[in-house]
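U., I forgot to send this yesterday:
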Amino acid sequence: MMPSLSNSDELIFFVNGRKVIEKNADPEVNLLFYLRKVLRLTGTKYGCGGGGCGACTVMVSRYDPKTKKIHHFPVTACLVPICLLYGAAVTTVEGVGSIRTRIHPVQERLAKCHGTQCGFCSPGMVMSIYTLLRNHPEPTPAQITEALGGNLCRCTGYRPIVESGKTFCVESTVCQMKGSGKCCMDQDEKFFVDRQEKMCTKLYNEDEFQPLDPSQEPIFPSELIRMAEDPNKRRLMFQGERTTWITPVTLNDLVELKTSFPKAPIVMGNTEVGPRIKFRDEFHPVFISPLGLPELYFVDSTDDGVTIGAGYSLAQLNDALHFIVSEQPKEKTKTYRALLKHLRTLAGAQIRNMATLGGHVVSRPNYSDLNPILAAGNATINVISKEGERQIPLDGHFLERSPEARLKSEEIVLSVYIPHSTQWHFVLGLRMAQRQENAFAVVNAGMSVKFEDGTDTIKDLQMFYGSVGPTVVSARQTCQQLIGRQWDDQMLSDACRLVLGEIYIPPAAEGGMVEYRRTLIISLLFKFYLKVRRRLNKMDPQKFPDIPEKFMSALEDFPIETPRGIQMFQCVDPYQPPQDPVGHPIMHQSAIKHTTGEAVFVDDMPPVAQELFLAVVTSTRAHAKIMAIDASEALAVPGVVDVITAEDVPGDNNHHGEVFYAQDEVICVGQIVCTVAADTYAHAREAAKKVKITYEDLEPRIITIEQALKHNSFLTVEKKIEQGNVEQAFKYVDQIIEGEVHMEGQEHFYMETQTILAIPKEEDKEIVLHLGTQFPTHVQEFVAAALNIPRSRIGCHMKRTGGAFGGKVTKPALLGAVSAVAAIKTGRPIRFILERGDDMLITAGRHPLLGKYKVGFMNNGVIKAADVEYYINGGCTPDESELVIEFVVLKSENAYNIPNFRCRGRACRTNLPSNTAFRGFGFPQVAVVVETYITAVASQCNLPPEQVKEINMYKRISKTAYKQTFNPEPLRRCWKECLEKSSFSARKLAAEEFNKKNYWKKRGLAVIPMKFTIGMPTAYYNQGAALVHIYLDGSVLVIHGGCELGQGLHTKMIQVASRELNIPESYIHLSETSTITVPNAIFTAGSLGTDIYGRAVQNACQILMARLQPVIRKNPKGTWEEWIAKAFTESISLSTTGYFKGYQTNMDWEKEEGDAYPYYVYGAACSEVEVDCLTGAHKLLRTDIFMDAAFSINPALDIGQVEGAFIQGMGLYTIEELKYSPEGVLYSRSPDDYKIPTVTEIPEEFHVTLVRSRNPIAIYSSKGLGEAGMFMGSSVLFAIYDAVAAARRERGLTKTFTLHSPATPELIRMTCVDQFTDMIPRDDASTFTPWSIRVS
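Result:
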């Protein structure tokens, strides 16, 4: 029975203080879509569509008639169905503040503290901090960190974002060193003085900030209060295109509805149902939403426990439990404290404010962090139906979904009862995840033990594990067998044996990591055992022996600290004219627009008349013949205009080896086979799912580098450089070691997915594309090839993009061609926005690399010879692979001078999506191999790694292996300063002390030197052009060929023009990059943007100033405006192009020599980590980076680049893990499965210093710093190596070992071999196909 259409109610809610009445509310429409496409509020951004990135965060406010209070909370708009918003007030970034009215202090401070680069995540950041301030106008630093836990940023590295939030905290934000009350900056006056230049640490001026005045915030609409207090509320019904949404207002009504529609889901937060509908194609004709039903919202405390309403959000549950813990004696609150520990890291603040206790309990996810604890704490669930109320024990049977313990389909959860714990009853929660917060657990557990009073004899024992099977699993047989035993080591080893026997994870289990998960099952049990022993000892030290002192640190999880740090850079020369902005930490020119949401990205552009949306259909096979494409069902979907295939491409469908639409065969999973154009994206996506493609698999299917080598499958010829006589040198060394290093790839995870708006023009076959790209010329070339028209008819416009990192160099050209073909075929504008999952699948990322080395050295650590081979996994088409392998070979020595050196490299062709450019371009992969063999040499010689690095480092003016001369003096200086200022040797000793005292936690330090290359070995790739117009009012328009990706290129260009024309920055405007104004521009990549476009802008300005000179000489006291007016009357041209021919680099691969790069950027980084050997978790305690910036044009932007690249690099080397099936299917397609660093991963102490040197070849003696910081992240990898090596030595394993990258928790744990890793069952690899494989 379906309710009839006529009785659809009006949906009433407020957005930014304005009333919205939606007469046709569709339950399938979410708030993000409604804000962006219906209300045209485009400040709220689409980042992932699954609540995992925080880009679409908004504030929802509701009035509670019971408490008469207004409740503000953050939500991710992508998961909120609009029907949930009846009676709510929504505040978006536009409602917080705007350039047109006034900006809010949150927006101002995020911008001025340089907490925004590309600006795509900024509105979400603003909303998270703003909502916190609405609830806590004077927050603590911990609250700031917690509020930002659900927001991802890929540009900044988070520190400046946290810092902008900390400016609202009451306590001083300057770190008072060690309680002395002295700032740590003053500790050593002399270390500034002996340096020629004075160093500065202030990147912004706090005195400029407007104060936060909570009384100025918008008031809650009184109409909503009246609606909430209305005694005669009635049931609401919203009827959509395919679904019905019903909101009951009484409990009886709810029970009635659930009886009539037993299959209808009950939706409160939509965090469980929403993603299932969106990503798993579930469909529900009816939704029931009892949001706000008073019977579901309460806390009821009694003497023996507490009952909490099922409607409470996890954030409200958190507050309620905190209150109970503060009121009750400690022994009663063990279960509550265990829940609180997991609530802190469960998802992010937005999801915790949406998800409800009832929904979490009843959906029983196998990864649940709370259910195992509730079960261990003997909780029960109160349910209601037509039949009346009943209690269901929240136990193993319920969690394992056994038939006798399940909810009937017409039953509704009312509340959850959690009993108090007792004196001899211990309840604990344990978990391990890839990332500390906002990540599903790899394994988690809830455990409880009850002892006979006054003894350590087990009376009752319960163990529940999550993420080890399709449901949460209870180890009930193990627990049964241990009753009556003493809580001692013998019991523990029996328990481990029994639980491994009872909980079996099959070798090919979904999710992989099988041996790691088996190990965690018993490692977490061991932690539980230790914690209980420790607590027994505290209760009666006489009776119960304490755990060994060396085991103490195993008890505690790593704390979440608020990061802090110091940024040092050279002060501006006091004699520089005050108007000259060069060298000052100027804010990004769009920063305020970023934080108010007024910066326009491509999908924020208003709809174009008759535009269509494009959805892609991609290959599901890695290598197959296309037998047939059947689009008949797709074409029948309402709103569908056309399906576009290879047949529809007017020009080349294969341009330089890149295929636009698959033709006859597919060569990877994720290759575009066809696209669907329709009137809405929903229709296009629905139709795309109905396209039927028949395949016939082809052999061979090559996925990994090893398979490519076996099949001799390559994209390029071998590239080689060699110096000295390697064979000869190997004969005269003391030792030779050989090894190989696997380095996996990385997803760009730019916050704004690939976005294109293609508009065909009426005449002359012209077409205009608006898109986010690093290389508009390339898009123009590919579109011209696909459409078979001259490039002069194609205009590519690029204003800004939400992060790129190399992922928008070549890929937008291919996608641009795909959308242009659709636009021409349909004759209508095409809006093409890749969903996050499609983007991750289609566009691929960093090249995985396999390095094989053979190194000969003397016992004193001097390396005499190295022979290395590198192979990269290029994927299925050429893309940038040849250039990447050239860079790998050329950069393969890093900072070390090895007299006899041979390096060879080749790019492999595989059936994976084609890998592409990514920040650092091969160097972050190759340099890890170099550091690995240096560290291995140190291990063989029993020397500290830093000593072997020092011995083999370039010391004086030298030639590289490809015969380019350079001076390593800045490298030596960065290295020396890094060791001194980071107190490396003292901290290394302290870490060794710590390691002696702690068996299960280890600390490690590593310091890494870097010699990084800038630019391209091909001279014509280093050219750049600009166009400068001076208008008659004196205002100036600057246009250049570079693209603004968030790195602040436009900001620096304004600084250059301001200095050269000697006018204030406010006179200068920079609008967009386009192929119409500056033709044939090369890519904005290789850290070259400022170098080449700065020179081009400078050249144009100097030409204009030379023209103005006669006018100025006649009237030296005149104003700029007067000079310009006069010049016009004298017919002097006020517009010119500027040009920079480029650095004259070259490389001759025949001779294996050349001046391949214009200059080097040097640096050094030191990191310290602590590793938990039982779980594989690590905590980054401190990082110091010293970067040779020469002269920084804008220290704020440069430090932002260094910090952002470092955090991105740290992610690459530690937690970012791409998983592929053996058939070549990418599993990691969302922030749920691919973990980039969040605010909790960044170093607790983070110090960055820009070191001064000279670089006369570049503009104002600056250096390009966009990529150099990336490799610095490997200092974390090698610090982890150091810690793991300490653990292995203590366990008697002294052999040199290799830590491959990424050093995930799994790798760390399994390399820290101990009795637990020895205990688990192992499988014969030949007997099963693993769930995932590595492709390097």
